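User: Hi! I'm working on a homework problem where we have to compare a predicted structure to a textbook description. Could you give me the structure for the chain below?
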Amino acid sequence: MRRSISFILFISCTAAFTQNKPQPPVKRIAIRAARLIDGKSDQAIVNPVVVIERDKIVSVTSGGAVPAAVEVIDLGNATLLPGLIDTHTHVLLQGDITAADYDEQLLKESIPYRAILAARNANIALQHGFTTIRDLETEGAMYADVDVKMAIQRGEVPGPRMQVATRAMTPTGMYPLLGYSWELKVPTGVQYVDGVDEARKAVREQVMYGADWIKYYSDRGYHFEPDGILHSRVNFTDEEAKAIVDEAHRLGKKVAAHCIGSDGIAAALRAGVDTVEHGDGLTEPEMDEMAKRGIYWIPTITVGLYVAPGRGGNWPKMAELQRTNFPIAMKKGVKIAMGTDVGGFDWRALNEAKEFEYYVQYGMTPMQSIKTGTSVAADLLGWSNRVGTIEAGKWADLIAVSGDPLKDISELERVQWVMKGGEVFKNEIHSR
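Assistant: Happy to help. Predicted structure tokens:
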């Protein structure tokens, strides 16, 4: 009894001391620039001042007036934007133009080594201005994406905020590694799933180990037929695909479907997926259905154009088909979110912000293109209350470029200043 009373008195005294102890003032930072693209407005804001407190945005004003008693970061003639979002990445993959590239990684690189490279890739993304990414499967590295995400969250390594999909799914024998002797047990880039019960169990297992999204491969074998449509071979039965989607939604997770040919896209839409990844063979009826149901299209134009010359066959024609389909999908009101499939091409070979430039070439205005990788992407992730725009209450994720991306969208490939959560991770602009 005496020990209990003494302990209570100790806790009470400690609490009183803590409450009476002077607390250091909250540090505020005011960021000035020539213009600001906030991710939601159709016009840039001139002479903005963005006030940051800890890791959040407190206010956004125009006119250049800075509040008293704040540290000022003056970026001069630069343009401020929200941190960029890439909704289709593979941090554990280093490019797979050929089957040999892919096999080399799965057969000769350990998962720990691949995780080290993934941490490097995450930092590359951050240095390019991508403060948030959705990583859509580990390609044989099991749940290592969860570890990379955790290391970033804990401040062990620099990188963007991540949502991860862990292991994608296909039925047995429908995804590499393939072609090896049946006497050998080789790794596979995905989780093989057969039947409705296995589908539901696989979803539960992935969620248990940290998946934010569920991804599956809807098709393979892309080919053109006399009707001029890009067709494909569908992987899962409708019952299996619906079981994946139903179980994921029941557990509060969204589903991304890799589907390139029209047949695979149609199957994914029947299953009720949330995003169509790649979607080269989209037909107009499929676009209409996506627009009606609010299903996002992530075109990943960059990877298609990058790998097409090396793969040959139908790939160049498939890449050209996206150029034709893109403005049609825009006109029909399909939600298009920025995603590159980086990892499908080497992270060091190309800046993934090139995707924005392709969107402009294919019919978007620069502002529309920017929104695909800011506010639209944030909405896809379910994080529109946290990222994607520069406004009070959002995380202080901002980037700056020296020029005006509304005049030259390629400015986004030359990000010079990066802030994530109120901390500056890159500064190549000499602030005044």
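For your comparison, note the following. The chain has a mean pLDDT of 94. The CA atoms of residues 120 and 372 lie 25 Å apart. Good luck with the assignment!
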